[in-house]
Amino acid sequence: MKGALIALLAIIEREVLRFVSQRGRFLSALVRPLVWLLIFAAGFRAALGLSIMPPYQTYITYEIYIVPGLCAMVQLFNGMQSSLSLVYDREMGSMRLLLTSPLPRWWLLMSKILAGVVVSVVQVYAFLAIAACFGIVFPVFGYLAVLPVLVLTGFMLGALGLLLSSTIKQLENFAGVMNFVIFPMFFLSTALYPLWKMAEASPLLRQICALNPFTHAVELIRFTLYLTPNLLAGVWVMLAALVFFGAAVWGYDPARGMMTKRGG
Amino acid sequence: MLETALDIQGLSYAYGARQALKDVSFTAASGRLTALLGPNGAGKSTLFSLLSCLFVPQTGTLRVAGNSLATAPRAALARMGIVFQQPTLDLDLSVARNLYYFAALQGLSKRVARARIEEALDRLDMRERSDEIVRRLNGGHRRRAELARALIHRPSVLLLDEPTVGLDAPSRRSITDHAHELAAQGLCVLWATHLVDEVAPSDQVLVLHQGRVLADDRCDNLCGADSLAHRFQALIGAPG
After folding, report:
1. In what order do the strands lie in the sheet with B4-15?
2. Does B9 contact A at CB distance below 8 Å?
């Protein structure tokens, strides 16, 4: 047990060290949601009228609405970036090093996800701090309460990244992930517009949005920031996290032989 | 009589229709370097992937220091030190940090790791490079760092998958000498290569070709008056 914890901390430390040394990664992780918040939201607020709906008790500006979705977006990109680094790692061989540790494989994979979660949570708080500088603030305890939720949503998205990395054989295929995972997940969710707004456009799209686990991640973050419980979103995110993680562990099962390319 | 550390029996593996290993059986002893000699595509890397639990064999058994990879894979992995063909060091970290990371993956505490890392670096004459960033090291020193890393958890079996690929002649010599020294100190060393000049007369030689074991004998017994290069080429049917 002690050995497993030592390995977990070392994997997290390595990810944090990597993150600190890649300043560009931190900057782009912050710039991306800020562009949405300060440019897209400013233009979009006029086009989109929002009615009062839970967890909001009053009319809100579009900037306020979009922040929880952008927090989840930071985590989505981070999860995919970790998955990218896993594919890269695997090509470079250091994933082999990880997987030949005598610790249980599911533990090693979970540690790898948690390492990504730590980095993504730091990014989200940095984004929330900058948003606060622009006057977009939430209840003080909301910032604290959202921490465990961010760990959960980050885990779900990290597990999805891990699952994808077990199926992607080459780095080049990652562009497909952008087109077929990141964009649909983000746009078919409540990150940018509420479900009822989507229903006005198309009931089918609304149904898809309601099933998208990313929608529930966004709603869980949104409700928790206002200290309002959302059991459905919590259960949905937890289930999705378990399914993604289980499938990822299955994907990295040596009996599947998916970890390495054909040997000589 | 040397003690058997690695025992492989009836091992087969296929990638779809292509058979990479066909009924491979051999043992490797402690205190000796066993050279797994084969041309590219002979099945060496597949064998290493099976030994390091990255693949699971379709038939056959593998035992490392008495531990079956099928029933006790973690105990088996704990007894193995592995140097992969591809470099697996983090280039932006120091040698010591890379080694600490590996020690942690083995579940070793910082205190234990420190002593083991110093010991391993000393064995490879790498102590003075400990704080250097890996990116600044030459290929030979990087390989030595990987070799040192593979020793931290005091394995009984050391697997080296073509560790001299891409190195210049003096670095190759140095790595092969170190591997022979480690074998002399009691380790079971399995060394995959396609270069006959890396094999010493007292080494056990295992010739692998098209997934089959064609020869398994001490190098000097196998060659007789002939050179290993000739003998090897004759065995695999290559033009001399």
Report:
1. B18-29, B4-15, B59-64, B67-68
2. no
